[in-house]
Design goal:
306 residues; 8-stranded mixed beta sheet; two-stranded antiparallel sheet
């Protein structure tokens, strides 16, 4: 029977993700020569070539990709084993580490933690604020157990390493100065704001969401000011310096800002959670996911988000 070495398979998987031996060594806290030696030994154990020269770099062979397809099932099963052992040893007690983007922390994570403290006080949730790309690096690296992000920046449903859980469709409203001619309207079309000065971040998810929503409405927004924090954005709107899209989940308000609903095709951002495939069977993690789902459902009902 072919000998399968889990540690060496993890090195091969990391090389597939990182692309180079040097980056793999950095990620695994190894030397490049040790990475190369471990992969050479794995190729001998399996009896197939795993790497081939490609210029000054190496790339995975077809045999290596075949090995990884089967290895993903092995890794998922090991996650299930770890989850079941944790459940056996601790019942519903345990630690769950959650990485979440900024507006999801107060709107979803904190209410879920409060619910769990009453229903399952043995579960300790540790929260780490992180943007979308960082959250999934932390998840893949085992530094968090659950990552909350936006669907556009989450792993695809076909990614064998993760299980994806839809949570919420969060509508985007438009923030206008209270003295704006359109501020009193019950419902606006985004296209009516095509000539306005816009405030949004210079890069990152929120910049992409604003640009995509405006382009879907038939125009490219003129970026008058760049800001990433909601306090700064709303202060500039209040001062009449421009308009901005604001996620309803962010629940940011200022006296001098009018929040207007967009329609009929209101843009939304989709919030999802992801966890390493197989880990969802751990009882503590499953309870946290369920609490997040219940919080998202309640938020959808209260704010008419769904």
């Amino acid at each position: 029977m072919t000998e399968w070495d889990i540690k060496k398979l993890q090195i091969l998987r990391t090389l597939s993700e990182r692309g180079t031996v040097t980056a793999t060594a950095q990620a695994l806290l190894m030397t490049p020569s040790a990475v190369s030696q471990q992969l050479s030994n794995l190729a001998k154990q399996l009896g197939v070539p795993l790497l081939e020269a490609h210029g000054r770099r190496v790339r995975l062979t077809d045999a290596a990709h075949l090995v990884l397809r089967h290895a993903e099932a092995v890794f998922a099963q090991l996650e299930r084993a770890d989850a079941e052992l944790a459940g056996y040893a601790r019942g519903e007690a345990g630690e769950v580490r959650v990485g979440a983007f900024s507006t999801a922390v107060p709107a979803l994570v904190v209410p879920a933690v409060r619910q769990l403290r009453a229903a399952a006080p043995g579960i300790e949730v540790r929260v780490r604020e992180a943007e979308a790309a960082e959250a999934y690096e932390l998840l893949a690296g085992g530094e968090v157990d659950l990552a909350l992000s936006l669907a556009a920046h989450a792993p695809t449903p076909r990614d064998p390493k993760f299980t994806r859980v839809p949570l919420l469709a969060d509508p985007l409203d438009v923030a206008l100065p209270v003295g704006h001619p359109l501020a009193g309207r019950a419902r606006l079309r985004l296209a009516e704001l095509s000539e306005e000065a816009w405030i949004f971040g210079g890069s990152g998810p929120w910049s992409e969401i604003t640009l995509a929503a405006c382009e879907a409405a038939g125009f490219v927004p003129e970026q008058a000011h760049s800001a990433a924090g909601w306090t700064a954005i709303m202060a500039m709107v209040e001062a009449g310096m421009g308009v901005a899209l604001v996620p309803r989940m962010a629940a940011v308000r200022r006296a001098g800002v009018a929040m207007c609903t967009l329609g009929p095709d209101q843009p939304r951002r989709h919030v999802v959670a992801a966890l390493r495939r197989g880990a969802e069977e751990g009882p503590a993690l499953a309870r946290v996911v369920e609490a997040l789902r219940e919080t998202a459902n309640a938020l959808g009902r209260d704010s008419n988000l769904s």
